[in-house]
Amino acid sequence: MNDELRHIMEASDRIVFFGGAGVSTESGIPDFRSADGLYRRDSGTRVPPEEVLSRTFFLRHPDEFYTFHKANLIHPEAQPNDAHKALAALERVGKLSAVITQNIDGLHQAAGSKHVVELHGNVYRNYCMECGKRYGIDVVVAADGVPRCECGGVIRPDVVLYEEPLDQDVIAEALAELSRADTVIVGGTSLVVYPAAGLLEAFRGPNLVLINREETPYDRRASLVLHASIAQTLAPFIVDDES
Ligand code: NAD
User: Fold this and answer.
1) Residue among 26, 27, 32 whose CB has most ligand 1 atoms within 8 A, to mutate
2) Whose CA is nearest to atom 16 of ligand 1?
3) Where are the beta strands (DSSP E) in 27-182?
4) Which protein residue's CA is at the shortest distance from atom 15 of ligand 1?
5) Is 84 a catalytic residue?
6) What are the pLDDT digits (tens) for 140-182?
7) Quick one: which atom of ligand 1 is closest to the CA of 104?
8) 187 alpha carbon – ligand 1 mean position (Å)
9) Are 157 and 62 in contact (CB under 8 A)?
10) Distances, alpha carbon 178 to alpha carbons 42, 48, 189, 204, 215, in Å
């Protein structure tokens, strides 16, 4: 285990984790910007993934949006990895107050985390754009093309698309947690997606820890930077709190 990280964790009473797609790559879900991420692959679409995942594209071409969404963003087979498990364990023992995530895959909750602030929503929640009726993931997976509500409306995922604002209550919750934290661990995120990355400005505590395979724009501000696997780095914190 990294000694410096262990010291910081031992001295912390209110840790907040702030993560992104890199937290789930070791669960088999590709991120966007790594060398083998979705932005570097041939996605099979005629426009770049960033554009497919925009509000304008979704409203104009829901069929193509759903082809991409189903092929790349829904992973029912994925299981939490050691990073998700360690964060859930740290919450159970009272060290960690919240996980703030840009991910939409629900894996933190699957690992047992209770306080998860989802900045960009969750693919397992869906709703009708006409009547607001809420759906799970099954209707999306089962649909041949665009999933439709019984009222005839288009069902959309409850995720934040490019060009859409983040939910104000969610932002407020994230800011409140970050401003009260003594340690923030940032992991598995390129920190280039705004406004999410900008929320870190609310953190005023002594320890900013960055765990990411590649450099990020925040590296120079951090008290500890580990260019390493997030699952391997956090695995030692899977404490057995049941005993
Ligand atoms: P990103 O793809 O921009 O960056 C991921 C970062 O994680 C990269 O810097 C990469 O070096 C690092 N990384 C990848 N695997 C890692 C590992 N195992 N250990 C340590 N570091 C690792 O992702 P982002 O910053 O989260 O922003 C992209 C957007 O993509 C987010 O808004 C998110 O909603 C969305 N997204 C989510 C999922 C998901 O829910 N699992 C998957 C793809 C994209």
Assistant:
1) 32
2) 22
3) 96-101, 116-118, 121-128, 134-135, 155-159
4) 22
5) no
6) 999 999 999 999 999 999 999 999 999 999 999 999 999 999 9
7) 40
8) 9
9) no
10) 37, 33, 16, 8, 22
Strand order in the sheet with 155-159: 134-135, 121-128, 155-159
Please, are residues 193 and 208 in contact by the beta-carbon 8 Å criterion? Answer: no
Which amino acid would we find at residue 182? D
* Residue carrying structure tokens 């029912």: 76
What's the gap in Å between 33 CA and the centre of ligand 1? 7
Q: Looking at the CA of residue 192, tell me the nearest atom of ligand 1.
A: 25
In this structure, the chain runs to a length of: 243
- Nearest atom in ligand 1 to the alpha carbon of residue 211 is 20
Query: Is the Cβ–Cβ distance between 236 and 1 less than 8 Å?
Result: yes
Write out residues with Cβ below 6 Å of ligand 1.
20-22, 24-26, 29, 31-34, 37, 102-105, 120, 188-190, 193, 212-214, 229-230
- Residues near 139 by beta carbon (within 8 Å), at least 6 away in sequence: 126, 147, 155
pLDDT in tens, 22-65: 999 999 999 988 888 888 877 666 788 889 999 999 999 999 99
Of 69, 115, 120, 227, the catalytic one is: 120
* pTM of this structure: 0.95
Query: Tokens for 182?
Result: 């003594």
Distance of CA 200 to the CA centre of its chain: 15
From residue 210, how far is each of 121, 178, 228, 231 by CA, in Å? 23, 15, 10, 13
